């Protein structure tokens, strides 16, 4: 019954997809129109400041279009394991954390990395894997307040959190992973001390444009395209892994990424 309820809710979310896309595009388009009309009626000058606002809205529209295209390709991606590279996961995480450090420091956030003594290797598409890690760290950054902490932890084995949930419509069994496959996996955990997500919303956060809380678009500003976690879900599936998430409102969120060893 619970599975049937989840599938029913998933179908509702799918049907809302077009409306969600329209909503995501309507706000910047309305802003562009109001500015252009004001310039046309000579109510507002076409100066550098006004043009900067117009450019910002155009960039958002471009990002949404690019993200939708990237998500569409990821949803149809079939993994060719033979063509992928053996990646040093320890080194990749060092590089990604170093890249994000300046932004975290400027916001008053700490970003810490914990690695095992042994090097972990996984045969993956390096571009896709970097995208997954970047999106998860970016998500932690966006929903953490100054003074907060974000932790990236690499474990040499699959550490399963019993409180964590899978994306709606997906689970370990549907990923075709039995106990033997899971034994050959490692864990990347990305945890934050941010605002957290309610249990009711948690299974749906990987759906495109799903907003757990409209108030999270702080001060009316869009914090992203609404596609980042949907893209992560599809890229993880294509990588032969799975992802789980756990969260408590007011305490923070943890994402668990499971991928196979070389």
Q: What report would you give on this structure?
A:
With 262 residues, this protein is of the alpha+beta class. It is 45% helix and 17% strand. It is built from seven helices and seven strands; from the N terminus they run αααβαββαβαβαββ. It has helices at residues 2-15, 17-40, 48-75, 89-107, 126-142, 179-183, 228-238, and strands at residues 85-88, 110-114, 121-124, 149-155, 185-192, 242-248, 252-260. The strands form two sheets. A five-stranded mixed sheet has the order 2-4-5-7-6. The chain has a two-stranded antiparallel sheet with strand order 1-3. It starts with a helix and ends with a strand. The relative contact order is 0.15.
Stretches where pLDDT is under 50 for at least 5 consecutive residues are 214-222
> Main beta sheet, described?
5 strands, mixed
Distance, first to last CA: 38 Å
Structural class: alpha+beta
> What quaternary form is this?
single chain
**Beta-strand fraction estimate:** 15-25%
> Which overall shape is indicated by the principal axes computed on the Cα atoms?
elongated
Spatial order of the strands in the main sheet? 2-4-5-7-6
Beta strands, count: 7
Radius of gyration: 20 Å
Helix content: 40-55%
Nearest-integer average pLDDT: 80
Order of helices and strands: HHHEHEEHEHEHEE
Number of DSSP helices?
Answer: 7
């Amino acid at each position: 019954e619970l599975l049937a309820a989840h599938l029913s809710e998933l179908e509702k979310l799918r049907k809302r997809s077009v409306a969600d896309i329209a909503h995501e595009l309507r706000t910047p388009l309305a802003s562009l129109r109001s500015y252009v009309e004001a310039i046309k009626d000579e109510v507002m000058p076409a100066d550098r400041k006004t043009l900067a606002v117009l450019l910002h809205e155009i960039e958002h529209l471009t990002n949404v279009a690019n993200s939708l295209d990237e998500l569409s390709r990821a949803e149809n991606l079939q993994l060719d394991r033979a063509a992928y590279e053996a990646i040093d996961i320890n080194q990749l995480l060092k590089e990604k954390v170093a890249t994000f450090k300046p932004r975290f420091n400027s916001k008053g956030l700490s970003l810490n990395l914990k690695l095992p003594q042994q090097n972990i290797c996984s045969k993956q598409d390096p571009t896709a894997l970097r995208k997954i890690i970047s999106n998860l760290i970016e998500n932690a950054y966006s929903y953490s307040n100054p003074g907060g902490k974000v932790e990236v932890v690499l474990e040499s084995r699959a550490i399963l959190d019993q409180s964590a949930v899978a994306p709606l419509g997906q689970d370990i069994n549907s990923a075709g992973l039995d106990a033997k496959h899971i034994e050959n996996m490692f864990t990347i955990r990305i945890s934050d001390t941010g605002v957290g997500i309610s249990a009711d919303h948690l299974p749906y956060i990987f759906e495109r444009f799903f907003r757990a809380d409209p108030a999270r678009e702080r001060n009316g500003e869009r914090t992203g395209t609404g596609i980042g976690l949907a893209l992560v879900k599809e890229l993880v599936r294509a990588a032969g892994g799975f992802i789980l998430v756990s969260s408590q409102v007011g305490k923070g969120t943890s994402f668990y990424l499971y991928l196979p060893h070389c």
